[in-house]
Specification:
60 residues, mainly alpha, 0% strand
């Protein structure tokens, strides 16, 4: 079995965790210590940011 490669950079994940208020948990326990709800909120926020970036980029 191969391990899945992460899509988000560690820096981006850390910024999202700071914005969403659970970075302290990540620092103390690692990514495995966050709640499922927090992980879901992180993904939702990352999607929002990607959609905003896509809507601002020029269409070909």
């Amino acid at each position: 079995m191969s391990r899945r490669r992460g899509v988000m950079s560690e820096q981006f994940k850390a910024e999202l965790a700071k914005d969403l208020g659970f970075y302290g948990t990540v620092q103390q326990e690692g990514w495995g210590g966050i709640r499922t709800k927090d992980a879901g909120n992180m993904v939702k926020r990352a999607i929002q940011i990607a959609e905003q970036a896509a809507s601002k980029s020029p269409q070909s």
